[in-house]
Amino acid sequence: SASSAERWIKCPISVTATEDSRSSEAAAEGTALHAVSESVLQGSPYPAIGSTISADGFDFEYDESRHKDTAAYVDYVRSLPWVGGYRVEQRVHYGRALGTPHNLSFGTADCFGFTEDLEGRVLRIVDAKFGRKPVNPERNSQAILYAAGVLESLHPIYLHRNFRVTVTIFQPRLSRSPQEWHTTIGFIEDAVGRMRSPAQAAVAFKDGRPTAEQVVLFPELTGNHCGWCKRKGACATFQKELVSIAQPGKQVEWSPLLFSMRDAIKSYLEDLERYALDEALRGALLPGTKLIRGKAGAAKLAATDVEVREKAAQLGIENQIVKQQEVWATPAVIRDAFYRAGVQQEEIAKYIRQPEGKLQIVEEADPRKAIESGSANAFVGVSRA
Hints:
By secondary structure, this protein is of the alpha+beta class. Helices cover 39% and strands 19% of the residues. The strands form 5 sheets. A 5-stranded mixed beta sheet has the order 3-4-5-6-7. The chain has a two-stranded antiparallel ribbon with strand order 1-2. Strands 8-13 form a two-stranded antiparallel sheet.
């Protein structure tokens, strides 16, 4: 796919990962906002503020903030001097340019068409990004493939190699100013040509039939692209980098490679911990781990202010927790005051709720007491949040 180009260009074998069909909440939000943008750009009204928009199993409130982000992108697209209109959320194929199967080589271009300025017409590719991580349009592999796909679908005679192309990244959550890269069709064609070899290797790795030359030319390669890779757990090179920084007492040494991998390493360790916790919750503790309950959450009121005041008045301690008819003390202070006044824990629970600590997975050597599970189904339905 175009969206994963930065990864498979650098490390074609990464496509052999077992894809996780689950979407993250952040990715699902982006999908939902793209859908809203597409609908509005095609003539439909915006959703009502406060309504629910959904994508990939997640629901989001279409609040004022999300509306402003979406409207900023829509207004930008509408402001451009289009010639003959524009297309939004269109699937484009670029297999002919890559020399790869048509059905494996496609992406969804957010918006494209021709605009016009004093020097003539320009092929414009616009990519909306609703995340907060800055994306650079210059020589952006994803955008280059979108442009190649658009060119495959057009093929008008006047699109010569010097014909101008403008790639725009619009990130409303970072800036209302678009980031642009001005290039030519010739540069796009040459850039895609350089992608052919890794693209064809990726297809071969995925099919399980790489040539000896491809295996030599495209070994496992670590870098910042590992952050989006689903194969990290099976990648010997990535695991080697992890081991190299996990030595006891190891001093910090500058490494450009590890610095570029920092997000990938963080996300991998988070995934590792999440996996161990999920296994523990279903009663299958992994070697060297144990399940504990963390520190209890902050006390919360379980009754209304009026009920708390009435109880405090009965106990003769209203002045300790009430000021000018308002409950000013924290739930923890109220709980302690009730306890000192002789109220039993069972009754205190009617007024103050003490959330249990979150379930956590820790090393077996951790001094905190483990939660014993008598069966594999002991924690079915227990939240790990």
